[in-house]
Amino acid sequence: MKAATQNLTAQIPLPSSTRNLPSKLAEVDVNKICQLIVQQLTALIPTVAVWTVYHNLDTGKRQLVAESMQEQMACAQTIPYLKTGYFGSGHHLNSYLQQEKWLLEDLPVLEIVEFKVTQEYCVYVCCVGDENVGTAEYILICTAEMLSPEQQQLLLSNAQLLSQYLIMYKERSHHITEIASLSQALGRTEHQLRNPLALINLYAENLRLALPSGCLQEQATLIRQTVDELCAKLTDLLYYGQRTRLQMKQHNLQTIVAESIKGLQPWLEQKKLQIRYPDKPVHVTVDSWQMKQVFDNLLANAVHFSPDGGTVNCNWYVYNREVLVEICDRGSGISPEDLKQIFKPYYSRRVGGTGLGLAIAQKIILDHQGNLWADNLPEGGAQFSFTLPIKR
């Protein structure tokens, strides 16, 4: 088996913290992260070979990202047991390690395991994902010298960083799969929605032509205009996932929130609720209609679960390159089970809800290169948060 070796030359600093990673979820490139980790370990630790193995969700296969010093590995060809049996005479230590014949037992996650494959070489492995044989994801270092405690800590720190990236990588892939299912469902229902709308439009026009001038004719005209608006919004909804259709311009979040609140006003009066938001404007580059759908869904959700006479708080905080928006209610909060599925299409906590509102909101935020998540507040109630780039 020929060693799958990849020489790395990119001089890109490795992220030292995952504090701001949720907002960058759309940009995660696991292969690039693995390359950076391999390059950093190679530069800081005297190694014979370094590689990472992770599960590529696009191909469905485990992928190797490696770097090795072939001249240092050459002596491995003289080791007798590596030149016999299934190895053949042309294979060496790299091939033996990649065959994973040494992987006989389950690896503990985020713990360094040391073993010797020959008298000359030590191997250190730290599992970062599935620990089962044949599916394990890990970082491996092969060295001619034993690693010091400091060097082992460096290996463990990089393993922890890669583990967090892999968790986000898999969560994002799961969300994208669910959103694709939602898009397909919307496409299937398009025909069922358009036919009744077209029929209402036709009958409204017939009534307008038959009625004398006055209030009734104006109402028929209003029905037809409303149907036209619904058809336009249906078209936008079906194609909102295509970034080329986003109408990106600078907009004030205050204006968008105020429009959403206006639509909720009858409900707010009924429950005697208030929605508070900052009096300081903040401008972001967004598709205003789609961003209004996000606020419509999140604010309506907060109003539904808020007790009568309460307050829904909408706040935003501006950082260097992005804005963080938080919408908080004082309801009963979200159960642990609901937190796991709350953005899943057709999953709803509201009686009579379609289960599409939060899934659509998440897709819109992802298309705007942001991220949306939910939490429970320590003082009670739920909080939905999302990030948006200030400029694109």
From TrEMBL:
Q: Where are the transmembrane segments?
A: none
Top-level division of the source organism's lineage: Bacteria
Cited Gene3D superfamilies: Histidine kinase-like ATPase, C-terminal domain
* Record-level GO cellular component terms: plasma membrane
Keywords from the UniProt entry: Kinase, Phosphoprotein, Transferase, Two-component regulatory system
Q: What is this protein called?
A: histidine kinase
* InterPro entries recorded: BphY/WalK/GraS-like, HATPase_C_sf, HATPase_dom, His_kinase_dom, HisK_dim/P_dom, HisK_dim/P_sf, Sig_transdc_His_kin-like_C
Which residue intervals define the domain Histidine kinase in the entry? 188-392
The terms under GO molecular function for this entry are: phosphoprotein phosphatase activity; phosphorelay sensor kinase activity
Q: E.C. number, please?
A: 2.7.13.3
> Record's Pfam families?
HATPase_c (PF02518)
| Biological processes per GO annotation | cellular response to phosphate starvation
Reactions listed under catalytic activity: ATP + protein L-histidine = ADP + protein N-phospho-L-histidine
- PANTHER family for the chain: PHOSPHATE REGULON SENSOR PROTEIN PHOR (PTHR45453:SF1)
Describe its function. Answer: Photoreceptor which exists in two forms that are reversibly interconvertible by light: the R form that absorbs maximally in the red region of the spectrum and the FR form that absorbs maximally in the far-red region.
